[in-house]
Design a protein that fits this description.
heterodimer; A: alpha/beta; 9-stranded mixed sheet; 16 helices; 37% helix; B: alpha+beta; two-stranded antiparallel ribbon; 32% helix
């Protein structure tokens, strides 16, 4: 696994940095993509560490910076990071649940040059039904939405869809409209981390997906240009993998709250790779030289069916984390691909999802919420074992 | 600005609110940044965009470009680029706001 990718493959510039500035979060989303054992990692990078990492990535050519988490607003130096990064020449995106976004803070963001706020919408409490019925959630989002508009930001709403909420798509879209959302991303859960633990509760049936897409299309027709709506289906329903991150170490850098630099949000889970920390190495070495970032560059790492596949330049073998989670080897083809000998592991889950599952009330009993207690339990259950 | 033919020399453009324009050494060209994206503006496109500041009229820009790149008539190219940039939502006329 430590073998460097084909040395002749040209290393491109990174364009996008996602900074998970904290794993702290007031929410307990069942589909969270933070590592399930996040309680094991720390301490968080300091403001100076972050700014140094941003500066170094900027020098390599990165232009987009996402400030995310956890909930980034849990740190009181996000305003400084946003302002300093804007000065460095980044287009800065704040990716937030909106919890903690006061007028004072948004005004500081505006002044510092923050480019965009992406407001995520999720079932923020343990009461799944609260998702729609609770006026609390709606009121909070409406208040934040109003602030976002007042400060002349476009209203960008991200809604994570899954089996337990996808049937409410009409209400979700109406809520988005009432808030004056201009961009709405309806993204089905991707099955990593907490969502992977919960995937049998979260994977929607084909019928649910088709209904949701139909309603979305009708809604789109009605509202026209005033709201741009994107609908993303779960990749389990595909037969070719996504071109994950446009290829390993190609454009994307993820930095975790404790300073690990990863080629995607989830790579921390992969065995046999030593991901460098911004405390110990500079970004140029990490991006260009580190064995971890070179591990899946080029195609010399590929096995069959990828190695001889005519589509290998298109999807780069798909997602290594998904390959690892489902087949045990991150160098295998992403089993979403129907050429993968492990494809049945995906289709079996999809078939299972067509059958009736637990009703929401009972699903709530078995579903795993992202919280510190569950994280500590999972951390003990899943020690990271290197594959030899 | 569907009435593109009405693009008179006095019109003043400025960058749309969501966009950011800058020189990128790593790309060796000017770029336009927007949420989750980037457009590379090579050569003339970058030179025109550089002159959009919310103050200069189209005539001012053409004059300035002619003095920097003498010998060719750039007016039509500038107009065409501005129309395209406006249609893409990168820039707006001062009156639009």
């Amino acid at each position: 696994m430590q073998k460097a990718g084909s040395a002749q493959s040209k290393i491109s510039n990174p364009l996008w940095v996602n900074a998970e500035i904290t794993y702290q979060c007031p929410l307990h989303c069942v589909f969270c993509y933070n590592p399930v054992d996040y309680t094991q990692y720390g301490p968080e990078l300091t403001t100076e560490d972050w700014l140094r990492a941003f500066r170094q990535a900027r020098e390599l050519g990165a232009v987009q910076l996402g400030l995310s988490g956890g909930e980034p607003l849990m740190r009181d130096d996000v305003e400084i990071m946003a302002a300093e990064a804007s000065k460095m020449g980044y287009y800065v995106n704040l990716i937030t649940s909106g919890i903690g976004l006061t007028e004072k803070r948004i005004s500081a963001f505006k002044e510092g040059g923050l480019g965009q706020i992406q407001l995520s919408f999720q079932d923020s409490t343990r009461e799944l039904n609260d998702f729609l019925s609770s006026t609390r959630t709606f009121e909070l989002k409406s208040k934040v939405a109003k602030l976002i508009k007042q400060y002349e930001y476009p209203m960008v709403l991200n809604v994570v869809l899954h089996r337990l909420n996808i049937d409410h798509i009409q209400e979700i879209l109406e809520m988005a409209e009432a808030m004056g959302a201009e961009h709405v991303e309806l993204a089905n859960t991707q099955y990593y981390a907490w969502a992977f633990e919960n995937r049998r509760q979260l994977l929607p049936s084909r019928e649910q997906l088709e209904r949701a897409e139909r309603i979305t299309n009708e809604f789109r027709e009605r509202v026209g240009n005033k709201m741009k709506i994107y609908f993303v289906v779960p990749d389990y329903y595909a037969d070719r993998p996504k071109a994950c991150m446009n290829g390993w170490g190609s454009v994307f850098i993820n930095i975790t709250s404790d300073g690990l630099v990863l080629p995607c949000h989830e790579a921390r889970m992969l065995p046999g790779l030593e991901f460098p920390n911004v405390r110990d190495h500079d970004m140029r070495w990490i991006w260009q030289e580190s064995p971890a970032f070179n591990a899946f560059r080029g195609d010399s790492w590929m096995k069959e069916p990828c190695r001889t596949c005519p589509e290998k330049e298109k999807d780069f073998g798909g997602c290594h984390c998904q390959a690892y989670m489902l087949t045990g080897d991150p160098a295998n083809a992403d089993p979403v691909c129907d050429k993968s000998p492990y494809h049945h592991l995906v289709t079996e889950e999809v078939e299972r999802a067509q059958k009736p599952q637990l009703p929401a009330a009972e699903a709530k009993q078995v579903i795993l919420f992202r919280d510190d207690k569950n994280s500590r339990a999972l951390g003990q259950k899943q020690p990271k074992t290197p594959v030899t | 600005m569907s009435e593109a033919q009405g693009l008179s020399g006095e019109v003043v453009f400025e960058l749309e609110r969501q966009f950011r324009f800058q020189w990128e050494p790593a790309q060796d060209c000017f770029v336009l940044l927007y949420p989750e994206g980037m457009v590379q503006l090579k050569g003339g496109a970058g030179e025109i965009m550089k002159r959009i500041d919310g103050k200069a009229s189209i005539e001012d820009m053409v004059k300035d470009l002619q003095s920097t790149f003498p010998g060719t008539d750039l007016r039509q190219d500038v107009i065409e680029f501005l129309e395209a940039a406006h249609a893409k939502g990168w820039i707006r006329t001062k009156q639009d706001q």
